[in-house]
Amino acid sequence: MKYPTVSDVEEMRTRGYDPSVVAEQVELAKRGQMLQDLKLATVKAFAGVKLGNGVGLLQGQGLDAQVDEKTCAAYREKDEKQDWRALGLDELNRYSSSLYFFDEEGMRFHLPAFLMAAMEGTSAFNLVHKLLSSTFVPDQFALLTPAQRQVVRGYLRLSEQEDEHALDREHIQAALAGYWEV
What we know:
Elements: H1 6-14, H2 19-45, H3 57-65, H4 69-78, H5 89-94, H6 104-120, H7 127-132, H8 146-161, H9 169-177
């Protein structure tokens, strides 16, 4: 979702928009600022994270397809290992099922890229669902630092407010009070 800026809201006021519409836009602008702050927090919290020995994006696809070890190793050779920001949106969308096959290191490395794509509204995957199903695979998130977990909490809090996640609200609240509590 695209949020209005403070200047957008001021322009609406100047043009004489109904006060209730302006009030709604003020709240959306606040949410937009929270989103921008969360993006900055994501970059900061995950700065310098490398893949290490973790499962890579392509390697996860090999695990998903149950290919042999040699093929999986070839996929791993092609995986980005140094900078999660180098992962392209097309790759993330195409290989999003890898989220279910990452180990702890793989999840810590790829999660910020998936979060940023979801926050930009350009993802074709449901990251909220994966974060809510974390209770089934908590080990995947075991290496996250408190700051990284805070980023996930922030993302879930923002998602909870979105209409597209209306059916997930109860589950999001339970996850925030449970597994994702810091």
